[in-house]
From TrEMBL, chain A:
Keyword presence, Metal-binding: yes
EC code: 2.4.99.18
InterPro entries assigned to the protein according to its UniProt record, in alphabetical order: Oligo_trans_STT3, STT3-PglB_core, STT3_N
Domain Oligosaccharyl transferase STT3 N-terminal span(s) in chain numbering: 28-428
PANTHER family: DOLICHYL-DIPHOSPHOOLIGOSACCHARIDE--PROTEIN GLYCOSYLTRANSFERASE SUBUNIT (PTHR13872), DOLICHYL-DIPHOSPHOOLIGOSACCHARIDE--PROTEIN GLYCOSYLTRANSFERASE SUBUNIT STT3B (PTHR13872:SF1)
Pfam families in the cross-refs: STT3, STT3-PglB_core
Gene Ontology CC annotations of this record: endomembrane system; membrane
Pathway: Protein modification; protein glycosylation
Assigned protein family: Belongs to the STT3 family.
Cellular location(s): Endomembrane system
Keywords noted in UniProt: Glycosyltransferase, Magnesium, Manganese, Membrane, Metal-binding, Transferase, Transmembrane, Transmembrane helix
The protein, known as: dolichyl-diphosphooligosaccharide--protein glycotransferase
Provenance organism: Danaus chrysippus
Automatic annotation (TrEMBL), chain B:
Keywords, ordered alphabetically: Disulfide bond, Endoplasmic reticulum, Magnesium, Membrane, Signal, Transmembrane, Transmembrane helix, Transport
Subcellular location: Endoplasmic reticulum membrane
Domain of life: Eukaryota
Signal peptide: 1-20
Name of the protein this chain belongs to: (African queen) hypothetical protein
Main location: endoplasmic reticulum
């Protein structure tokens, strides 16, 4: 098999214009990369242009809030920040439960710009951070691909990743999330790793470790790196590709990376205490053992050491494996956590962790979402993989492993499409580059013709003369085929870019806190209900008011409304969430008990029935029930919320438990909008089964313009079920003794009898009132 | 005389109609009989008489969970066997657990032995698991809904706990089949390597590894993992003939994913053909007499890529409403 060296020899003279002058090729590289950056940046701005410069969705609001806190109070205060506004009454130690890389990145940019006297608001930095980093990702991908194959392939890969929907889905302007910067760190770490394994220099290895440190500080997906690189080393060992370069680069990377990663407070001692990181240390031990054996071998190269080497390697591998298993059994190493375990055993999460299963991005991936996110690359990247394996070397082993593991993870979870996208771009770039390189190359004139001349010398002279006029057309593909291929592939790439722009614009550029609806005439209507409600909360409620809502809206309430929440998107405490779910799923009285227990002042529900918004709380309700049932199986039964035929309905056929649940009542209380007949629920397409009811323990505090957000105030114990006495009667009170007697007797007067009826209620106000009168 | 009358009474009890029989027997005796029956097998197989006696007639303080099934091979009930296995696990777990009491019994009715029971309860499907509470008549929720809960033993136990407040901890007989299969495979591979220990060249065959890798990619990209987890039907039969492509973008059929894998594969083959025809990665020596053949292959590759990619696009368009942009 020809190695890379011969390939280079073959390629160098044929590259034509690109390699003639370094200056020219550098110019092309720089131009293409900056254009890719620009295109990537521009295609991520749809949300800003359509709506405004605003933070999107849920998690970004928390990131924004903590970034703002860090910019205001300084880094060390941020690390020690105890957030009492979240998880009431538990609170949250933010500094120790967050990956700070994102905040530090934007905080640093903010600091630099302000040092240069450029006054820019931190929000704008947060909004535009991800699009800017997409350009850096393109450059990192270019570097990675040119290490793997050639610079032309690198340029293709950079252009692909700049606009591909699988990546822009997480990095549009306003989507201020860890993934936005983490993909850059991922690609850059891989590039440096390949560089270090190629050169075997400590410098590049330490660079890899530093880049890995940045990745650890930015995203929990760093586990992918710390498992993929050891896997690469392991496979290289199996393939018998051990070398000094490998030894130096991995041992330096592992030690420095380990020490650095433990500096992040949230990661702490995990790298030496959990199973997710054990592959790395096991491979490290194995590498040391094999290094030692190799050294022994080099002392006496003549002896029968080869078999000893193989045997020793196997023994070392088994020993390391057994040691890890034993330590896990002894409890020194924590076993795989549920989130990782669910990647292998795909049915695990659904049975044991409903809160993971309830998130839509943790579902497996259909082929159409692969196609939607990757388009033409989905059926061209195997070509790149094919040629990488056929012409294998140390680096290409890495990219093959990267592709195979990422494609598996992406199949299991939609969310991990994000880790697949970069490698697909790299491999598809290689495939396109190989093909177009061959097609665009000039038909070789001198070399082949001479060769054919030499061969033809043996033929008859007469034939030779006939052939010489058109040897070019015979040997090459011919002009027609070339141009046909070229046109077809240009069309493919055009389709790809149109698809990418369309997907980014239509599917991934919605801020989801500002909704847009389109009328029949194409006019656009902005529904700004979320901000209206959060604004109301921040202006009209007490500073320390506690707001209960489902966990999806926790970060937004804290970020925009600046009020205390009970649960939020950092779903670390399942039982607390289950308690909120139980309150939502119980009837009003039971819910009131839970709410007083949790000191709730306001309840916020999302109701989309009036405008046909499908992501509202009634549709999420069944997950609340499931999560609540997981913790309180005695009180909540999922089956009670379905009709007898097992349907999930809200109309008159709905089950009684459903109709009496707090969530149902809060959603449909006083609801009379939604077209004809009034009170029609557009999302479910049905008329609610229970209407015109009254609330006892809560009162409506605010409802937004399109009924999307409804806020209720929880009444204090002295506010409900009190008989309304006219003022005159309140003044004429019999003595205390008399009233007690009367309450026990069957009453004399109607007013007394009504008082007596109060006694059966769970919370008796009467006692209080009497003492007050005393 | 006394004995005679007793004998007569017993006969009377045995052969007279079931109602009278039940009235005669006391609760304690019934429970004792049931306990005897469960001593050997954790499940009691019921015929009409037993069913009427133990399950339907009034003096009871125990709940009865009964599975109605059709186990005979001629009935061709594939799911019955699965449900039967899981149900047996539940019954055994209960029988041999510390929570075992005489408040709950498990029964089974096979259609071929007790079709009159099926008629009596107006059942026309199998399998059905029903719960007969100690007091009152079974409510609709007392027959288990497999579609929602699933047929796992854990789900059955949870449902029983729901209905009767008896908590059953499922103890599955450990399943060694997975481990055994793995061991057999491992041994097989080891033997294979041992036999061919002098000829391990095939491991260095890059073509083979490349084909394996590419096929893993096709499988994953065409959503086989989704099929594995969600278990969709192979394809959909409607009145207007079979439907191979699921209309929504959130679902797919098994056959559909195979079609997509084939389309992907065709595009990849086309592209590799084109590259090889144009000289391959390593810039092979170009021989003049091959010119025609290479042009032919190149055109074939191009046609493959274009046709199958446009097919892929059209399948995708069929699934996604309003896809052709704008």
């Amino acid at each position: 098999m020809p190695s890379a060296a011969t390939e280079n020899k073959a390629n160098v003279p044929k590259k034509g214009i690109f390699n003639n002058t370094t200056g020219f090729s550098t110019l092309i590289t720089v131009t293409v990369l900056s254009l890719a950056w620009l295109a990537g940046f521009a295609s991520r701005l749809f949300a800003v242009i359509r709506f405004e410069s605003i933070i999107h969705e849920f998690d970004p609001w928390f990131n924004y809030r903590s970034t703002a806190y860090m910019v205001q109070h300084g880094f060390y205060n941020f690390l020690n920040w105890f957030d009492e506004r979240a998880w009431y009454p538990l609170g949250r130690i933010v500094g120790g439960t967050v990956y700070p890389g994102l905040m530090i990145t934007s905080g640093t940019i903010h600091w630099i710009l302000h040092t240069l006297n450029i006054p820019i608001h931190i929000r704008d930095i947060c909004v535009f951070l991800a699009p800017v980093f997409s350009g850096l990702t393109a450059i990192a991908t270019y570097l990675l691909t040119s290490e793997l194959w050639s610079r032309g392939a690198g340029l293709f890969a950079a252009c692909f990743i700049a606009i591909i929907p699988g990546y822009s889905s997480r990095s549009v302007a306003g989507s201020y999330d860890n993934e936005g910067i983490a993909i850059f760190a991922l690609q850059f770490t891989y590039y440096l790793w390949l560089k270090s394994i190629k050169s075997g220099s400590i410098f590049w290895s330490i660079c890899t470790a530093l880049s890995y440190f940045y990745m650890v500080s930015a995203w929990g997906g760093y586990v992918f790196i710390i498992n993929l690189i050891p896997l690469h080393v392991f496979v290289l060992l199996i393939m018998g590709r051990f070398s000094q370069r490998l030894f130096v680069s991995y041992s330096v990377f592992y030690i420095v990376g380990l020490l650095l990663s433990m500096q992040i407070p949230f990661v702490g001692f995990q790298p030496i205490r959990t199973s997710e990181h054990m592959a790395a240390s096991g491979v490290f031990a194995l590498l040391m053992a094999i290094g030692a054996l190799k050294y022994l071998h080099s002392l006496n190269p003549k002896g029968q050491w080869k078999q000893l080497l193989i045997l020793g390697g196997l023994v070392a591998a088994v020993t390391v494996f057994l040691a890890v298993v034993l330590l896990t059994y002894m409890g020194i190493i924590a076993p795989w956590s549920g989130r990782f375990y669910s990647l292998w055993d795909t049915g695990y999460a659904k049975i044991h962790i409903p809160i993971i299963a309830s998130v839509s991005e943790h579902q497996p991936t259909t082929w159409s979402s692969f196609f939607f996110d990757l388009h033409v690359l989905v059926c061209t990247f195997p070509v790149g993989l094919w040629y990488c394996i056929k012409n294998v070397n140390d680096e290409r082993v890495f990219v093959a492993l990267y592709a195979l593991s990422a494609v598996y993870f992406a199949g299991v979870m939609v969310r991990l499409m994000l880790t697949l996208t970069p490698v697909v771009c790299v491999l598809a770039g290689i495939a396109f580059s190989i093909l177009l390189d061959l097609v665009l190359r000039e038909d070789e004139t001198p070399a082949p013709t001479q060769e054919s001349d030499d061969k033809n010398l043996y033929d008859k002279a007469g034939k030779l003369k006939k052939r010489t006029p058109e040897p070019v057309g015979e040997t090459g593909l011919g002009m027609n085929v070339r141009s046909g291929t070229l046109i077809a592939f240009m069309i493919l790439l055009m389709l790809f870019s149109v698809h990418c722009t369309w997907a980014t614009s239509n599917a991934y550029s919605s801020p989801s806190i500002v909704l847009a609806s389109y009328g029949n005439d194409g006019s656009r209507k902005i529904l700004d209900d979320f901000r209206e409600a959060y604004g109301w909360l921040s202006q009209n409620t007490a500073e320390d008011a506690r707001v209960m809502s489902w966990w999806d809206y926790g970060y937004q309430i804290a970020g925009m409304g600046n009020r205390t929440t009970l649960v939020d998107n950092n779903t670390w405490n399942n039982s607390h969430i289950a308690l909120v779910g139980k309150a939502m799923a119980s009837n009003e009285t039971a819910a009131y008990n839970i709410m007083t227990m949790l000191d709730v002042d306001y309840v916020l529900v999302i109701f989309g029935g009036a405008i046909g918004y499908s992501g509202d709380d009634i549709n999420k309700f069944i997950w609340m029930v499931r999560i609540a049932e997981g913790e309180h199986p005695k009180d909540i039964h999922e089956a009670d919320y379905f009709t007898e035929r097992g349907e999930y309905r809200i109309d008159s056929e709905a089950s009684k438990t459903m109709l009496n649940s707090l969530m149902y009542k809060l959603s449909y209380y006083r609801y009379d909008s939604g077209g004809s007949p009034p009170g029609f629920d557009r999302t479910r397409g049905a008329l609610p089964g229970l209407r015109g009811f009254k609330l006892t323990y809560l009162e409506e505090a605010y409802t937004t313009e399109h009924w999307l957000v409804r806020i209720y105030r929880v009444k204090k114990p002295d506010e409900f079920n009190r008989p309304r006495l006219p003022l005159a009667k309140r003044t004429i009170q019999t003595s205390n003794v008399m009233s007690k007697k009367l309450a026990v007797d069957i009453g004399h007067m109607t007013s007394k009898r009504r008082k007596g009826a109060l006694k059966n209620k769970p919370i008796l106000v009467k006692g209080k009132k009497v003492t007050k009168l005393d | 005389m006394k004995y005679k009358s007793l004998l007569f009474f017993t006969l009377f009890l045995t052969y007279y109609d079931a109602n009278a029989q039940n009235r005669g027997k006391g609760l304690e005796e019934k429970v004792r009989n049931l306990k005897d029956l469960t001593a050997k097998y954790s499940m009691i197989s019921l015929n009409l008489n037993r069913f009427k006696e133990y399950v339907r007639s009034p003096p009871r303080d125990y709940s009865f969970v009964v599975m109605f099934t059709a186990m005979a091979p001629s009935r061709k009930c594939a799911i019955c066997q699965h449900v039967y296995d899981e149900y047996t696990i539940v019954a055994n777990s209960f029988r041999f657990s510390s929570a075992y009491s005489d408040k709950l019994f498990f029964g089974i009715v096979d259609f071929d032995e007790g079709s009159d029971i099926f008629q009596m309860l107006r059942l026309n499907t199998a399998p059905v698991i029903m719960h007969f509470p100690a007091k009152g008549k079974p409510k609709p929720a007392d027959s288990m809904d497999f579609e929602r809960a699933g047929i796992h033993a854990e789900a059955i136990a949870k449902w029983i706990q729901d209905r009767t407040d008896v908590q059953i901890r499922i103890f599955r007989p450990p399943n060694y089949s997975g481990v055994a299969a793995f061991l057999v495979l491992f041994i097989f591979i080891a033997i294979f390597f041992y036999v061919r220990r002098n000829n391990l060249e095939f491991l260095y065959n890059k073509q083979m590894w490349a084909i394996i890798a590419v096929f893993i990619c096709f499988a994953m990209v065409s959503g086989q993992m989704w099929n594995q987890i969600r278990g969709p039907p192979f394809f959909h039969r409607t009145k207007n003939g079979p439907v191979y492509i699921n209309g929504g973008s959130h679902g797919q059929f098994v056959l559909e994913s195979y079609i997509v894998a084939m389309l992907n594969c065709a595009v990849v083959v086309g592209m590799i053909l084109m590259i090889e025809a144009a000289g391959g990665v390593n810039g092979k020596d170009v021989r003049p007499q091959e010119g025609k053949r290479r042009r032919f292959y190149s055109v074939v590759g191009l046609v493959l890529v274009c046709v199958f990619f446009s097919l892929l696009l059209s399948v995708f368009r069929a699934k996604t409403q309003g896809y052709p942009y704008r």
